[in-house]
Amino acid sequence: MTENAKHSTHPESTNGDRPEPASGRTRRRFITLLGAAAVLALSVGVAGAAAQDRQQELADAKSKLDDATAHRGVLTSEIEQFSSQISDLVGQVAVLRNREDEVAAELADKQAEFDQAQKELIELRDRLAYAVKRLSDRLVAIYKSTAPDELTLILESDGFEQMLNRATYLEAIENQDADLVDQVRTLRDSTRETVEKIRVARDTIAAKKEELTRTRTQLEARQAELDAARADRQASLDSVNSNIDHLEGDISDIEADIQADLAAAAAAQASSGGPPATLPAGPVVAGSGDMIWPVDGPVTSPFGWRWGRMHEGIDIGVPSGTPIRAAKAGTIALASVYGGYGNYTCINHGGGLSTCYAHQSSFAITSGAVNQGDIVGYSGCTGNCFGDHLHFEVRVNGAAVDPMGYL
Q1: What's the sign of the alpha-carbon dihedral 281, 301, 371, 290?
Q2: What digits encode the pLDDT tens for the residues 145-186?
Q3: 191 alpha-carbon distance from chain centroid
Q4: 3-20+278-405 is a CATH 3.50.50.60 domain
Q5: Beta bridge partners of 324
Q6: Does pTM top 0.70 for this prediction?
Q7: Taking the domains of the chain in order of start, what are their residue ranges?
């Protein structure tokens, strides 16, 4: 083997080496078996109509599975969104509960003020009643009194000293009457202020209660809506998952039937001594670079880490017997059975660049120069694999690189 074809001797991971996700595994089996069923119908000619029916049945089941899987993705996304919204709402409820505690403390303070105001009001009413009675008594006394006016009392005084004493006494009476009037006025104003204070406190308490009730009602209603919507989506998701399980079971049954048909066809072919069936060479499919696609089919497994190890090429899903073209002109450096790669061909393109083709059912050429597009072998499932496909590699100085950069 030349330096350009050297690489790890570990067999690469193919379709059936290790378990993979159900959706990817079903898709790869579908592609492989669909192509295999086509080969069965074309090459054997036995029960051709039945093979075509199985192809259509498998394609229909796969289409339904794809639709159900897409629907499951949508439902899962919606459930995650509802759960996120409910989580946010739970946080808002927690904030509200803290606010309820704060308002409850405020309400307690307002209630204490209310109780105190009521006590003050009762006391003020008593004091006002007493002051009003005193003022009334004084007015009655003044009305009934026949005492002379100040001038008469002063002129009838026996001397200057008696005159001063009488004047002082009269002034004291007048001051006492004025104080009594002021006291009544002050008590009246205090009573009005206390009543207003009580009214404000009562309105504040009522507003706080209304705010809490309204907010709590809104949050509870919104949470109920989200819970109902999430439950509805979850029920739909459960139904879709059940449908997916049913479809995957149907696909498995169809695959088993196709495998049985393939096995029967292979046995009949072997007993008749005929050569392995091959398909006609398809059209040349150009890549975006200077290489062409070795076969025309979907990439069923990309380059990179897969199941804990490096997948050093790409898997292209095609039926067994599909002609494999040289991706670029060069010289065959290796064409032999090579470990887990099965029938393995590597072409040296010069400048440290090489391409390799694994799991071939048979070789078309094993040495010499090849032109771009020449058929070097036929796809199959030799080596470590459970499904027909082509494992295609691009190597630079022996190190594997992503082939998609060259196609």
Answers
A1: positive
A2: 655 555 555 556 566 665 566 566 666 666 666 666 676 677
A3: 63
A4: no
A5: 377
A6: no
A7: 3-20+278-405, 45-277
